[in-house]
Amino acid sequence: MPCKNSISTPFKVKELKFVINIAWNEIIILWRRKGFQWLLLVLMVFTGYAIVSGVSRYREVHTQREALKDSLREMFLHQDPKSPHMAGHYGHIVFKPYAILQAIDQGVESYTGTTIRLEAHRQNDAVFSPASTQSSLIRFGEFSFSVLLQVVIPLLIIFICYGSIVTDRKNGTLKILLSQGASLRKLVFSKIVAYHTFFTAFLVLIIALFYLFIGIEIGHAALPMVTGRLLLIIILYSMYYGIVIALTIYFSAIANSIPGLLTSLLAIWFIWTIILPKLTASLGAVSYPLITKAQFNQELTSLKANELNGHDWKNEKTKAFIDSVLTAHRVDSIQKLPFRLKGLLMQADEEVKNRIHDKVFSNIRDTIRLQNNVSSFSGIINPFIVVKKLSMALSSTDVYHHFHFLEEAESYRRRLIKELNDEDTHKHSEFKDERGRVSADFWARIQDFEYRPAPLPWSLRNSKIEIAVLFLWLFITFGIIYNRTPHIGIV
Amino acid sequence: MAVYNIWHNLQPHPTYWNSMKQIYIIGQYQLVRFLRNKLMVSSLLFFFILCIFSLFYGKKFVEKQEKVIYPIDTLNQKRDIETKALLSELEDSVLTEKQQYFALTLAQRKGNTAIYRPTAFSSFSIGQKDNYPYYKKISFGNNVYDVEVSEIQNPDKLQVGNFDLSFMFIYLAPLLIIALGYNALSGEEDNNTIRLLKMQVSESKIIAGKLLFLFAILTIAATVASFTGFYLNDMNIHEHGSKLIVWLLISYSYFFFWIGIVAFVISFKANSSINALVLGSIWIISLLLVPSIVHREVTSSKDNQLVDILLNKRGDGVNILEIPKEKLVDTMYTMSHPYAIDLDSSVSTQIIQLAAGTEIRTRENNSLGRAIVDKQQKEYEKAEGFNIINPGYTIQNAYNRLAGTEIENYHDYLLAAEEYQTRMRYLIYDYMFRPRKFTLADYEAFPVFTYQQLQFTWKACIQALSPIYLLSLLLYVGSGLVIWRQVKD
């Protein structure tokens, strides 16, 4: 007696063969459609433009920022002789590098500052956001690969797949097809496999093309840095297309009117892509309002008021600090100290201010995170927002990557100011002249700011909600299709 | 008799009235169909509810900016009262040089925060108002164009954009037009009612009647929403009435344009699905792809110029101390001055050097800022050159100009701030060159930054919308020709 498995195995192979046959036929039919060929051609033109313009924009901005970085390094190295304290006030200017993956997804880069002046006592914000120097045209969005991947291709999927079952039903061919022994569930899944295979293949092709272009631009040695991210981008969009294709085909299977189906799908696309992102971002901003700059300054002032102030020697905390230093070194006057007190005091002042700034800035970042969580959770009803946020995260262009850059720049500032304060503390140093001014050799010792982009696991850690919601969408979509399809009427 | 003949000739032909009546009947028929279709009625209701939400959102935005401006105004008023009291006290006494300098310093603080206030219509169309700094301190010789982050913002929120009324009209209204109009003819064919209708009226009249009805309900919805916003923002009919009419004109022109697109597409008599596909594609192309591609093509990086401003601020620019003193004095005599200065022999060389140093540094700072403004202006004009293929932006730009939230308004504000600074600076030079007692009357006459927003007139509006009118004309003529050819064939 044959065991249960031996019976089911050939049956599964048969099922699989059916799915492959239907899927293959669907792809062939799709490929032969004139309208589809035109749409594909238009898409290819836009893709080509997105790649070429994205890479050329990268070249323009990257070259400009690298040149600026070099000239500012030169200025840093050859600055006029000055005391370490004055050098701290002069500071340094650093730039946010233009990431190559911005050619895929511009993210929030146009709305964040690109340049920071690093100086003593102050934590300046990044300035010169590109959007603040442009007209309202920028608010229509910036053309990039992500516009195609997130907005245009899903729409193309709707245009191509909406009629996949409903047309067969209207033509009466659905009945004939199912009378040959296939179930509607198998048919629906076969069509999903067909379209999904096609769009994923297309996705792989265009990302490969992009990979080739950036390989030429940034050099093959730098490619491994983006390979992992690009692979995840393919997986991300493949999952999203899977959801859109599955839903479109499912709706096609339950629809009675072709125009009604198409307008409903377009309405869903519009609500997902245009309305909900704006609506949820607005709700987030209203629910968790950010403090105003005046409130921010007031908070800083009030927190600093009761703390040590390196520039005010009459300040109680400053006096207490000086007394503690004198006591620790068992001397009764500042002149008897084996080092210059000013440098030590300035470093103490710096650390107090750092602590205050960290507190106030972290409150602001927490509020921004809370605002953004509103739209992240809205992913439960809108997979587009999830994909949008994950795409930005994988391209290192979301707000958290901007914060990462700010943190890196800030830690460089702290190291730089500490070096200067330490130098100021020395009574005698090989790098100082008789007037206490530091020499060019000192500047050469200080490494320039090199921004190390956040690693991939870091990027993913910030997107846990989005990843969970995306898998939930996949699970629920296919779960519904699997369970509900057998109950759909054929006629 | 002659008058009667002329009058008679001017009267439309009776068939004209008959045609109008037929179109009106089709409109009525469409109204009944519309009211019976729950989905369509709820779409319009949804549109209207979102309009109301957008109005509240815009109001909240304006209130937030006003909340930030209010303490600045209060502080200025407080300072003003304090300074006046002080100067009144000193009115009869002889001021020492130090007191004299102090009085002049106080005067500089008089209304010296240049504020770019939101207008009443900013809540309707926020434009770039959330992206531009809207207040800055103007001092004797600071950089007016210094780019500082004026308010703390969430970049995610900025990137997504604002949910204001202009967004509703620009993005959602065309979709509503498409949803209600794509099957104006093919829907009748699907329902097998086309033959019945065609027995009574021609196809062109069916299209005209249905689309006129569509235009009517959309204009009613937009008018009601706009008036709601008008009252929600406590606008005054005398002050803002004409602007509201311009606002409505822009909106109606845009709806008319989109109805023209629908008329053109459906005149080809394709089936409903093809119409929906084509119209959906036009929507995507005109509102997503074209503006973003135009933006990509017209903008370029301004990093180099922006960094120059930062370097100048840090002190890397012109070092006044390195300029020989004689040359500094010469410069003051040779440079052109926007306001008259009295540099007679009684003025000390030291004072002239001080003024020359300030003048050179301030002009250098501001010239760097103006270079960026010029570059932005060129990009802005270049973008306008594409308006014929970029209807969404054309309308957004018109709305923003009316609301004072476009880049040209921001530039105008910056130039006004520079002008104010120059006026203030030259008045101070005058006190430096001809020292005299600074009295309360002098303080009262000291300039205060007052900014009059650029006016967006009817003429400017019609001019700005001319690409929309041209496109509309082409679309309606095109659809008329298509129908005419079909009838002829």
List its salient traits:
heterodimer; A: 491 residues; 69% helix; 2% strand; B: 489 residues; mainly alpha; 72% helix
Largest interface: A-B, 83 and 85 residues
Largest sheet of chain A: 2 strands, antiparallel
Evaluate the radius of gyration of chain A. 30 Å
- Write down the overall geometry of chain A: elongated
Instruction: Give the DSSP E fraction of chain B (strand runs of 2 or more residues).
Output: under 5%
Task: Explain what the structure shows.
The complex is a heterodimer of chains A (491) and B (489). Chain A is mostly helical and 491 residues long. Chain A has helices spanning 4-32, 34-77, 84-90, 145-161, 166-171, 173-179, 184-218, 224-254, 258-287, 293-305, 316-328, 341-377, 383-394, 399-425, 440-445, 456-461, 464-484; strands at residues 92-95, 115-118. Chain A has one domain. The two termini of chain A are 41 Å apart. Chain B is built from 18 helices and 2 strands. A two-stranded antiparallel ribbon of chain B has the order 1-2. Chain B has one domain. The two termini of chain B are 45 Å apart. The chains are: A mainly alpha (491), B mainly alpha (489).
What can be said about this structure in brief?
The complex is a heterodimer of chains A (491) and B (489). Chain A is mostly helical.
Spell out the blueprint of helices and strands.
The complex is a heterodimer of chains A (491) and B (489).
Chain A (H helix, E strand, L loop, with lengths): L3 H29 L1 H44 L6 H7 L1 E4 L19 E4 L26 H17 L4 H6 L1 H7 L4 H35 L5 H31 L3 H30 L5 H13 L10 H13 L12 H37 L5 H12 L4 H27 L14 H6 L10 H6 L2 H21 L7
Antiparallel strand pairs in A: 1-2
Helix pairs in contact in A: 1-7, 2-4, 2-7, 3-14, 4-8, 4-9, 7-8, 8-13, 8-17, 9-12, 10-12, 12-14, 13-17
Chain B lengths: L1 H9 L3 H23 L1 H52 L7 H12 L4 E3 L19 E3 L17 H6 L4 H17 L4 H5 L3 H7 L2 H30 L4 H30 L5 H27 L4 H12 L10 H10 L14 H36 L6 H13 L3 H27 L6 H6 L12 H31 L1
Antiparallel strand pairs in B: 1-2
